[in-house]
Amino acid sequence: MASCKFNLSLSVLVHAIFLFSSPLVLADDKENSVLQGINSYRTSLQLPALTKNDKAGCLADEVADKLQDQPCSSAGASSVQLSNYPELLSKCGIDINHTRDGAVLPVCVPKLVPTLVLTNYTHTQHAKYINDSRYTGVGIGSEDDWMVVVLSTNTPSGSFAGANSLMSKIGCGHCLMCFLMGIMLLFVVY
């Protein structure tokens, strides 16, 4: 068992070194590198690779934009409080009345050092979501020291495929807002 964990850790480290060897990496490159690293990690666990989901990507960008002014703690994570989830979901065309599955996984790493970002997704409480075969889609956004991964499923309640309805614009999505706020608080508070 220990040998298996060592081999898995070594595999992630080797992938990370090759993926992140360029000293000057732009935000999109960092996001793509993190996605490649996560997919390499999932492949090493015999899980399917995550595919890009445009609406999850939009939500990841929106959440990252909102987090950019939040400070990182020395441990790389900070207590996060975001308001206006319905507004963020609406901007991305996600129907809050029909979306129940998904995960919003923000991490804060000073200067977004790629190997540390990947480690935050594969060796912390976020790993249980990255390791979950139910998740098939992904969106990644980053701003300043924040990287946000949004995972989606291929189910009707997790694909983010539904268009906004009139009811969601009026504000009947308080259940999802509470769900997402709970996820954010749960995953960023160590």
Automatic annotation (TrEMBL):
The chain crosses the membrane at residues 166-189. Keywords: Membrane, Signal, Transmembrane, Transmembrane helix. It comes from the Eukaryota. Pfam families: At5g19230. Residues 1-27 form the signal peptide. The keyword Zinc-finger does not apply. Residues 31-151 form the Uncharacterized GPI-anchored protein At5g19230-like domain. This is Uncharacterized GPI-anchored protein At5g19230-like domain-containing protein. It comes from Ricinus communis. The lineage of its organism: Eukaryota, Viridiplantae, Streptophyta, Embryophyta, Tracheophyta.
